[in-house]
Amino acid sequence: MFCFIAKMTIDFYYVPGSAPCRAVLLAAKAVGVELNLKLTDLMKGEHLTPEFIKINPQHTVPTIVDNGLALWESRAIMQYLQNQYGKDDSLYPADPKKRALVDQRLYFDLGTLYSAFGDYFYPVVFGGASYDPAKLEKLKDAVKFLDTFLENSEYAAGDKLTLADLTLVATISTIEVTDLDLSPYKNVARWYNKVKATAPGYEEANGKNVLIFKQLVQQLTKK
């Protein structure tokens, strides 16, 4: 008598160039789960179809569907993947103090670093605006904060790779390909190289995909 165990599939609606989508790809690699990749062409409005809006009323990517659970917001997805499928707690420690530090760095990326980058860069690329020097200074201040966090720390939230590093490296790599000079931030540069070398599947999940974002930027800004 044979017993068949159904393998659950995690559908992942994404755009490869997107930093939040790349952060989820990095988390999946680190946790060790496979995603059923569903490329979602925003330019064609595939995120606005009735079928997708039924899954995610906010019609944003990244979005996952896992055994009936629909979830969006990249950091929430990353936490879920680790909590549901992680083999240990190294990426997202169970200890309340250690986890709190990871959470702080995740929220720093969401509310400060990635926010400052988007506020400075996206109106220019997608809206045809001019670069705002004040917004550039705000972005540099955000990178400087990260540099300070890393003064006495190998990784963003301690001495081990965590989810915080994966979301932050997706943002920093995006900032890098838009030609902001990161060389003044020595701690960030050291950490960036370390994460690129130690994050599982870095090149497949983030390295090659950030170049897709760079190509998109070049196409949109071509005179």
List key phrases describing it.
223 residues, alpha+beta, Glutaredoxin, Glutathione S-transferase Yfyf (Class Pi), Chain A, domain 2, four-stranded mixed sheet, 8 helices, globular, disordered N terminus
Topology:
Elements: E1 10-14, H1 19-31, E2 35-39, H2 50-55, E3 63-66, E4 69-72, H3 74-85, H4 96-127, H5 133-149, H6 163-177, H7 186-198, H8 202-221
Could you describe the 3D structure shown?
Pfam families: GST_C (PF00043), GST_N (PF02798). Belongs to the GST superfamily. InterPro entries: Glutathione-S-Trfase_C-like, Glutathione-S-Trfase_C_sf, Glutathione_S-Trfase, Glutathione_S-Trfase_N, GST_C, Thioredoxin-like_sf. GO terms for molecular function: glutathione transferase activity. Homodimer. The chain folds into two domains: about 10-85, Glutaredoxin; about 95-220, Up-down Bundle (Glutathione S-transferase Yfyf (Class Pi), Chain A, domain 2), CATH 1.20.1050. The longest helix is centred in the middle third of the chain and has 32 residues, at about 95-125. α1 (about 20-30) packs antiparallel against α8, α4 (about 95-125) packs antiparallel against α5 (about 135-150) and α4 packs parallel to α6 (about 165-175). The protein has a four-stranded mixed sheet, with helices on one face. It is built from eight helices and four strands; from the N terminus they run βαβαββαααααα. It has helices at about 20-30, 50-55, 75-85, 95-125, 135-150, 165-175, 185-200, 200-220; strands at about 10-15, 35-40, 65, 70. The termini are far apart. The model is unreliable at about 1-5 (pLDDT under 50). α1 (about 20-30) links the parallel β1 (about 10-15) and β2 (about 35-40). The protein is an alpha+beta fold and about 220 residues long.
